[in-house]
């Protein structure tokens, strides 16, 4: 397994850790000082995983280490990471559930289109909109994790962190790019849908 693929696998591991930490009941943390700041630790894990999302692809292209494993696992692990964080944020009531459903629905749609394209001998490659989509989702998720974690690290006094305008703006940008990106894939695969 080459370096980019190891980084991708590491991102999957970090995603699992993120979900595990966020799933720990608050009551059980009282006896474990290390995890007093559960959301803070989870946010750090999410940021580390997000950084690897950009790192593995860059290294693979730079060093010509692109593999079938990486081509399959990189977008799959990305979907697991983003779906996990938004499901948890919705569960914590800091992110609208309907947007989480839209984000996950878009991922299922694109995955289905890619499978259809593959069955017809065509590659439905990622485009710049897809990269912007991922970036906007990571920024939005990080912001809402910080808002959620502010209570733990006594940042509630800094009211600007939880300003409605910031959250609403990030939600608008995130959902807009997600929908536009999904629509772009539908347009690119229109011929495949007609022939399929």
Protein model, in words:
By secondary structure, the protein is an all-alpha fold. The protein has one domain (3-191): Four Helix Bundle (Hemerythrin (Met), subunit A). Helices cover 74% and strands 0% of the residues. The protein has seven helices and no strands. It has helices at 3-22, 38-62, 68-91, 97-119, 128-149, 164-188, 190-195. Helix 2 (38-62) packs antiparallel against helix 3, helix 3 runs antiparallel to helix 4 (97-119) and helix 5 (128-149) runs antiparallel to helix 6. It is globular. 28% of the residues are buried.
Task: Give the SSE map.
Blueprint: H1 3-22, H2 38-62, H3 68-91, H4 97-119, H5 128-149, H6 164-188, H7 190-195
Helix pairs in contact: 1-2, 1-3, 2-3, 2-5, 3-4, 3-5, 4-6, 5-6
> End-to-end span in angstroms?
35 Å
CATH superfamily placement? CDP-alcohol phosphotransferase transmembrane (TM) domain
Q: pLDDT average, as an integer?
A: 85
Shape: globular
Quickly give the structural class.
mainly alpha
Q: Spell the H/E element sequence.
A: HHHHHHH
Question: What is the overall number of helices?
Answer: 7
Instruction: Please mark out the parts with pLDDT under 50 across 5 or more consecutive residues, or reply none.
Output: none
- Counted beta strands: 0
Look up the CATH topology. Answer: Four Helix Bundle (Hemerythrin (Met), subunit A)
Q: If classified by CATH, what would the architecture be?
A: Up-down Bundle
- Per CATH, the class reads Mainly Alpha
């Amino acid at each position: 397994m080459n370096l980019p693929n190891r980084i991708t696998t590491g991102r999957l591991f970090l995603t699992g850790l993120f979900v595990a930490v966020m799933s720990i009941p608050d009551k059980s943390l009282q006896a474990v000082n290390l995890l007093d700041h559960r959301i803070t630790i989870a946010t750090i894990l999410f940021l580390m995983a997000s950084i690897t999302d950009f790192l593995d692809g860059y290294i693979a292209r730079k060093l010509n280490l692109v593999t079938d494993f990486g081509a399959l696992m990189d977008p799959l692990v990305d979907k697991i990471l983003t779906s996990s964080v938004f499901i948890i944020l919705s569960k914590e009531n800091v992110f609208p559930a309907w947007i989480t459903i839209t984000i996950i629905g878009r991922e299922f749609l694109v995955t289905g289109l890619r499978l259809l394209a593959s069955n017809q001998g065509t590659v439905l490659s990622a485009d710049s909109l897809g990269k912007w989509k991922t970036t906007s989702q990571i920024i939005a998720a990080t912001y809402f994790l910080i808002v959620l974690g502010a209570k733990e690290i006594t940042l509630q006094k800094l009211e600007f962190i939880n300003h409605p305008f910031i959250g609403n703006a990030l939600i608008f940008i995130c959902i807009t790019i997600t929908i536009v990106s999904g629509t772009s894939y539908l347009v690119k695969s229109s011929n495949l849908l007609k022939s399929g």
